[in-house]
Specification:
CATH architecture of the largest domain: 3-Layer(aba) Sandwich
Strand order of the largest sheet: 10-9-11-8-12-13-7-16
Shape: globular
Structural class: alpha/beta
Distance between the termini: 84 Å
Radius of gyration: 27 Å
């Protein structure tokens, strides 16, 4: 049985195809560095990624005019430099399959194709599935169109309709029993999602949990985001029955007289990572243990990207990668020297390599040559360490940089334990684009932490109690006056957040909130999605202000 991501499967397919010319796989971060003069390069790279996942080439008429020129120049750049981005793995695999350039024993090597999380498949990935299934392989897909929440990556819930059209004889089995949530939660979630179209019909879920002991969904509107965060902290204290035992014993599983939950039973969900800051402050103030887990790209954390850029230059000593590594802060010889080296790389590769090898002493002033000499010496030292394995390299690199306490570097070292081969490790890092990193508040014995996470990061998880914050227009839904399709995806996000809960859901909103880096707060309206929940399943509670502490009158 072969289990893997689309990208892993396609990379293996490419390497087994004689008609494919191998190219250097580079990350999005490295690519951004190759276009220093391009304004908004990350936005442009994201747009190109979406276009590729929609199965569109630069000359396709559906490519927006805004991106047509950049997309064409970008693809030409990749070809000229012998580079390949993350999405190009799938693009190339689809091209080879279409053109019949994949050996029959490779293409027909899968008798059965099973695709999980089908609602997250992009048009490009669906095209790949169809091409692989053409050889007669049986095809099985499983997914929930109401949980399609990755439109920003190119996923499209219409893939289910496409599947029914392309495979009309396929048997469809609907799983109706829900073992996770209470009847109240299931009823509210289904009432909400019924606002979205369901071209193939929608299976009505039947909760297995008994209706008894099924509390209503609670809604607590707060006057502002600080008040909202304080309310979240107070609700958590109520749910666990107090925090006195935590300070007394260092661990706590709830005071059964006041609360029936432990910290590990609770998750606080939010639409964007920016919302975590105020929540963390409130939880810290109350001494509550928590972990923040968001869909952060591990590769975009500065220490990690520096490490991987340098490692990449050691594994594949390609001129552009060598220059990218030299441009890291620890080696940087100055802008003027970098510009001159870039010109040499483009127009005189032999002199470029001779200069980096210190065989061209007259090329630069002594101060620059000293920097290049240090770079050359470091490379030799780290190459020797890398020959011992990735853990040996990382251990010394992290120590040399003074990053021993950096949590993300500890995570990177943990990944290296599984992969001593440098090329394999590098591929795994570049493929592992969406890594969930965690940061901790007050220490608590694992797994007794309150989980703070984005709704996207919570997909696939479940918790006895879910607290959902930021139920406001412009936040959830994030799009405000968006297109019908955008609002439908935001509604699916809220649906996913509700259905993470097993027993209780508590909703919060703020009357005023600071928006995206603004210094001042602005009024916020309650989310339209609150109106889409059935009234009989929702109870509204007023947040009570704490009475002021009594002040002893002075003697004078």
């Amino acid at each position: 049985i072969r289990v893997g991501t689309f990208h892993q499967l396609c990379l293996d397919l490419l390497r087994k195809s004689p008609g494919w010319r191998e190219r250097t796989l580079v990350s999005e971060y490295e690519l951004a560095g190759f276009f220093p003069g391009e304004n908004g390069i990350r936005r442009a790279l994201l747009a190109v990624s979406r276009l590729k996942n929609r199965n569109l080439l630069p000359d396709d008429p559906e490519v927006p005019e805004e991106w047509r020129d950049f997309y064409r120049r970008y693809q030409e750049f990749l070809q000229e430099e012998g580079l390949m981005d993350y999405d190009e793995i799938l693009v190339e695999a689809v091209r080879l399959l279409r053109e019949g350039l994949v050996p029959p024993e490779v293409r027909g090597g899968y008798r059965h194709l099973l695709v999980d999380e089908f609602q997250d498949v992009t048009p490009l990935q669906y095209q790949l599935i169809k091409l692989l299934a053409e050889t007669g392989a049986t095809l099985f897909v499983i997914g929930d169109p109401d949980q399609s929440i990755y439109g920003f990556r190119g996923a499209d819930a219409s893939v289910f309709a496409d599947f029914r059209r392309d495979y009309p004889a396929a048997a469809e089995i609907r799983l109706r029993l829900n073992y996770r949530s209470t009847p109240v939660i299931i009823g509210a979630a289904q009432h909400l999602i019924s606002r979205n179209p369901a071209p193939g019909g929608r299976a009505l879920l039947e909760p297995v949990r008994p209706a008894a002991d099924s509390p209503l969904i609670t809604y607590l509107p707060a006057p502002g985001e600080t008040a909202e965060s304080i309310a979240v902290a107070r609700e958590i204290i109520r749910l666990v029955g107090g925090t006195d035992m935590l300070s007394a014993h260092g661990s706590f599983r709830g005071n059964k007289e006041g609360g029936s939950y432990s910290f590990g039973d609770l998750a606080v969900l939010f639409r964007t990572g920016r919302q975590a800051e105020a929540l963390e402050k409130a939880l810290c103030k109350e001494g509550l243990p928590y972990k923040v887990a968001g869909e952060k790209d591990l590769f975009y954390l500065p220490r990690v990207r520096e490490t991987v850029t340098f490692l990449h230059s050691l594994v594949e000593e390609e001129d552009r990668l060598l220059l990218a590594a030299l441009g890291l802060p620890c080696f940087f010889p100055g802008r003027e020297a970098m510009d001159k080296l870039e010109a040499l790389r483009r127009h005189d590769p032999r002199t470029f390599r001779a200069t980096l090898a210190l065989a061209n002493q007259e090329a630069f002033p002594p101060a620059v040559m000293e920097k290049l000499s240090s770079y050359h010496t470091c490379r030799k030292r780290y190459q020797a360490l890398l020959a011992e394995g990735v853990p040996a390299f990382l251990g010394e690199w992290i120590k040399d940089r003074g990053w021993e306490e950096a949590e993300e570097m500890e995570r990177l070292q943990g990944m290296a334990v599984l992969s001593h081969d440098p090329a394999d490790f590098l591929t795994r890092i570049i493929h592992g684009k969406e890594q969930d990193l965690e940061r901790e508040g007050k220490k608590g014995p694992a797994p007794e932490y309150i989980r703070l996470m984005t709704i996207h990061a919570a997909k696939g998880l479940e918790f006895p109690v879910v607290l959902i914050t930021g139920l406001e227009e412009g936040l959830l839904p994030l799009t405000g006056e968006g297109t019908p399709e955008e609002i439908e995806e935001e509604r699916r996000l809220f649906y996913v957040s509700l259905t993470r809960a097993q027993k209780e859901v508590i909703l919060f909103s703020a009357g005023r909130r600071r928006r995206f880096g603004a210094r001042d707060t602005a009024p916020a309206l309650p989310s339209r999605f609150l109106q889409e929940l059935p009234e009989e399943k929702l109870q509204r509670r007023i947040i009570k202000k704490k009475p002021p502490k009594p002040v002893q009158p002075g003697l004078f």
